[in-house]
Design a protein that fits this description.
With 326 residues, the protein is an alpha/beta fold. The protein is 45% helix and 17% strand. Pfam families: LacI, Peripla_BP_1.
Length: 326
């Protein structure tokens, strides 16, 4: 097996020079760098990743912390993160926190011991100072942590305006809004968008806080439809909640979209699989994950990052849970 000494001998330089070049840990002249590169290629030398992490206190590992892997939105994000990371030579370690701050903190501490290069986080269960104190590159995806950590997010407020107006334009007079958890920035932005749109319309509405979980959403909507049979429109802050609402409507014998229209938020693939297909405010999930990964890698490699906030446009996708405009 080729060793670093073999590379140094072939290149005509010292072992220390080869080490500095491979680890990016010090000055190496252009001639020496060229000689080492040619020697590495000719000898097909591969640097042991474990040894490299011990030397540099950094590996090629990226931690991706997700709050709920059962929500289809997050696996779609993870796919983008992994695709881009691999193209840059990084490997992704997936951590599912189950929305548990203690579990999230344990993941962070464990990964730091593995010389993780940086984190992408899609949860803000922990206090912002905890992230700031990690002293590692971090990018927040769809969640804001603090002003020092770059954020990649959709235009959630504008999306909520689009979703609410879609129901209003189709004649809804009594709209139920399933707002997400109040601790989440995207849910709050979507709430603001709903209030902005509904405030310009002369219709009844009610708001209930609803977790981004299918079963919980179904139960909440069953209760609300039972208490107020006049509800003729539902705008949900996530597609998972919208799917739960659709299930509740079916169980209660409410025809969708003739009697009840539903619009979700996310644009995940699951929406196309439902019957009828789910109308939704679609985020470019893959683009969000890809941008977050590229920004993180720039931070890891000490390259300039042009922006601290990246906002991705959304679009309204109409399917079978809404009627045609009258």
């Amino acid at each position: 097996m080729t060793t670093i000494r073999d590379v140094a001998k072939k290149a005509g330089v010292s072992v220390a020079t080869v080490s500095r070049f491979l680890n990016g840990s010090g000055y190496v002249s252009a001639d020496a760098a060229k000689a080492v590169t040619e020697a590495v290629e000719e000898l097909e030398y591969e640097l042991n990743p474990v040894a490299r992490s011990l030397n540099t206190k950094r590996s090629n590992l990226i931690g991706l912390i997700l709050p709920d892997i059962t929500n289809p939105f997050f696996p779609e994000l993870a796919r983008a993160v992994e695709d881009v990371a691999l193209s840059y030579g990084y490997t992704v370690i997936l951590c599912n926190s189950d929305e548990d701050p203690k579990k999230e903190k344990n993941y962070i501490e464990t990964l730091k011991k593995k010389y993780i290069a940086g984190f992408i986080v899609t949860s803000n269960q922990l206090e912002a100072p905890h992230y700031a104190n990690t002293k590692l590159p971090i990018v927040a995806l769809d969640r804001a942590i603090n002003e020092k950590i770059p954020v990649v997010s959709s235009n959630n407020k504008e999306g909520a305006v689009l979703g609410t107006n879609a129901l209003l334009e189709r004649g809804c007079q009594n709209i139920l809004f399933l707002r997400g958890p109040e601790a989440l920035n995207p849910a709050n932005d979507r709430y603001e968008g709903f209030m902005e749109a509904i405030g310009k319309a002369d219709v009844d509405h009610r708001i209930v806080t609803c977790p981004f979980h299918y079963a919980d959403s179904q139960k909440i909507v069953e209760r609300e439809l039972h208490n107020d049979p006049g509800i003729d429109g539902i705008f949900a802050s996530s597609d998972v909640s919208a799917a739960g609402a659709l299930k509740a409507a079916v169980l209660l014998g409410r025809n969708v979209p003739d009697e009840l229209q539903i619009v979700g938020f996310d644009g995940i693939a699951m929406g196309e699989m439902l019957s009828p297909g789910l109308s939704t405010v679609a985020q470019d999930v893959y683009k969000m994950g890809a941008i977050a990964t590229r920004v993180l890698i720039k931070r890891i490699e000490n390259k300039p990052v042009e922006e601290s906030f990246y906002e991705i446009p959304v679009k309204l996708v109409l399917r079978g849970t809404t009627r045609s405009v009258e």
